[in-house]
What does this fold into?
Amino acid sequence: MSDLLDTLAAASPQLWEGTLVTLQLTFGGAALAFLVAVGLGLAALSPWVIVRTLVRVIVELFRGTSLVVQVFFLFYVLPLWGVELAPYTTGILALGLNYGAYGSEVVRGSLTSVPQGQWETTTALSMSWLHKMRRVIWPQAWALMLPGLNNLLIMLVKGTALASFFLMNDLTFVSDQMRRTAGTFTSYGIAMVIYLLIALALSWALRVLEARALRRLGLREPTKGETAKATAEAVA
Amino acid sequence: MTWDTEFALSVFPELLSAFVRVTLLVTVVGSLMAAALGLVWAITQRSLGRRSLPLRWVLDFIRMTPIPVQLLFVYYTFNNLSALTVGILVFGIHYSTYMAESYRAGIESIRKGQWEAATALSLPPHRTWRAVILPQALRATLPSLGNWAIAMFKDTPFLIFIGVLEMVTVARQIGGSTFRYTETFTIAGLIFLAASYPTAILMRRLEKRLAY
It folds into this structure.
């Protein structure tokens, strides 16, 4: 036990650094992913066929080609075209676009799940687009989309582990370095526990938001199974 | 940097062969394993009720920690296993925790009356599951399992962490020796897209057809 504490104490500065890098990638990636998801999700319901088709192509391209391929594309191919991105930018861009594309399916699905009558009512009241979204459609869709976004956020946290492949000293990289001194079990064990804590904290925060959104609408919480099914549809 | 079609075509066979030998193998065996284990987790949780809480924690732990770290952890802990075996095990177990949730949705969707009828007929538990619950539950679960399998498929490049020569790793190697990353990664991405997009469409169709 004291051995473990010693190794922990010795490695704690690097572990802290690594955790910070992972957190920065998580928050940066999640912020971009959210913007992309809402933007593409709303555009997917556009009345113009051209916009809808374009959104479909973008979403399927990012969903279909694997996060790792996209990261490598940004990291290896763009410099050949004269675009040099900082590792942070590479990571945040890849995570944001990939999970944003998944998220847009959740956003679109939630918007279309708002009962038809609600949409018709806003038309009958001749609300402007912004008005109907803000006051009627979005609050209901928001409650529906949070469980799916929650699952995707956890996947994004896990996806940041790729960062060690484009020269970032993230948590995975640090734990891999620690293996030589601290041993396999301790180093990867600690990394997994830190990832778990990050994921649990974020997941809890989103569940608080969800409970609040549901309370406002007076609805019940969906079961975990229902959420898993909806997420599987988004990430496939 | 210009696009060289001839070069792109010349790397295609090598990438495709890595795709079939490693990527598809891991996905197929891993998915079957995940589907079997996921069912075991779901039935165990349902049968044990509140006593299954420790199992729930273990599954949450696996689901909430990154695949690369899990790959490295298993790879260095079990020295005698080949990297490919480790890959299949880790992907199978990791995605079984997701599939368990999908099974759970299917099982939850079965109306209470079905359970009560099974009890009224005094069917033993294994008959209740096999003859009454699962045939109905699996119908709703199947497309969801397929979707998770596609997600696993797109995660297979993580095998690069333990040095398995999977398609994207091969693409990176060829790119490294020729400095033509554009073609290799484009082809790799297209192969992924060509395999995952039609399968995803198929799952959507299946879902519509199987829906009650």
